[in-house]
Write a structure and sequence with these properties.
This protein has one domain (34-199): NADH Oxidase. 41% of the residues lie in helices and 14% in strands. It contains nine helices and six strands; from the N terminus they run H-H-E-H-H-H-E-E-E-H-E-H-E-H-H. The protein is globular. It starts with 14 loop residues before the first helix and ends with a helix. The model has no long low-confidence stretch (mean pLDDT 94).
C-alpha cells in the first residue's frame, strides 16, 4: 500500500525574528486568564468555528483526529447543562472532594454554583472519541486519544484568546450528563466544557503566579566546555 507525501518547506526565519515572535507569543499567552464572569453579548458563530478549526490542526495518534466539539447556543440546552453540572458540583463540594482538594481550590474562589453556563453565549464541549465508526459501522481503533484531545484543547484555548474572547476549562465530575443531554453516541466521552464569550465589564480573576521556567523545565545539555569548542 503506497502513501502519498507532500513537500514541506516552511520558511526558516532569522534567529532574531524567531526570538521576537516567540517573545510576543509568550507575552500574549501570558495575558490569558480563565474567566468565570462573562458578558451576555453575542459572539458570531464564525469565531467559534475558527477556534474549532484551529484546534483541529492538532497532531493526533495515527492522524485519527479523535475529537468532537459539540457547540451549544440554545438557551434551553444551556440551562439543562447548568442544572446538571451544578447538581454534580454540589455533591462534589459536599461529599467527593477531600479537604486538601478544597484547600487547593480556595484561592480560586469557586464553589458549586456555575452561573456562567447560562450567561456565556456559547458552551463548547470537547468529546473524546474512544473509538471511531467506519463507513460500514465497524469499530475503528483510535490511538493516544487523551493525549490527542489534550493538545487540541490547548490549541482551542489559544485560538479563543487570540480572537479577544475568554474561556474556562470546566470539568464537572462525573461528566456523563453531557453525553446524555446532548445525545452523543457511546463512543464519545466528554472531557472538557468550555464556556466561550467576552469577559464581563466587571470581571475579576484571582491574583495568581505562574511557575517560572526553572520550576517547569529540566535541561540536559552539553557541558559548557564542550559547547564552547563547537
Amino acid at each position: 500500500m503506497s502513501h502519498r507525501f507532500l513537500p514541506h518547506r516552511p520558511e526558516r526565519l532569522p534567529l532574531e525574528q524567531s526570538h521576537e515572535r516567540g517573545r510576543a507569543f509568550l507575552e500574549h499567552l501570558d495575558a490569558r486568564r480563565s474567566v468565570r464572569h462573562f458578558a451576555p453579548d453575542p459572539v458570531p458563530r464564525a469565531l467559534v468555528e475558527l477556534a474549532i478549526r484551529a484546534a483541529s490542526t492538532a497532531p493526533s495518534g495515527a492522524h485519527k483526529q479523535p475529537w468532537t466539539f459539540a457547540v451549544v447556543g440554545d438557551p434551553d440546552l444551556k440551562r439543562r447543562i447548568r442544572e446538571a453540572a451544578e447538581a454534580e458540583e454540589r455533591r462534589s463540594y459536599a461529599e467527593r472532594m477531600s479537604e486538601e482538594w478544597l484547600q487547593a481550590l480556595a484561592p480560586l474562589g469557586t464553589d458549586w454554583r456555575k452561573p456562567y453556563l447560562d450567561v456565556a453565549p456559547w458552551l463548547v464541549v470537547l468529546f473524546a472519541q474512544r473509538w471511531g465508526i467506519g463507513p460500514d459501522g465497524e469499530r475503528v481503533t483510535h490511538y493516544y486519544v487523551t493525549e490527542s484531545c489534550g493538545i487540541a484543547a490547548g490549541l482551542f484555548i489559544a485560538a479563543v484568546h487570540e480572537m479577544g474572547l475568554a474561556t474556562l476549562t470546566h470539568t464537572p465530575s462525573p461528566m456523563g450528563f453531557l453525553a446524555e443531554v446532548l445525545g452523543r453516541p457511546p463512543n464519545e466521552k466528554p472531557l472538557i466544557l468550555f464556556p466561550v464569550g467576552y469577559p464581563a465589564a466587571d470581571a475579576t480573576v484571582p491574583d495568581l503566579r505562574r511557575k517560572g521556567l526553572e520550576e517547569v523545565s529540566v535541561w540536559f545539555e552539553k557541558p559548557r566546555s564542550e559547547a564552547s569548542e563547537d
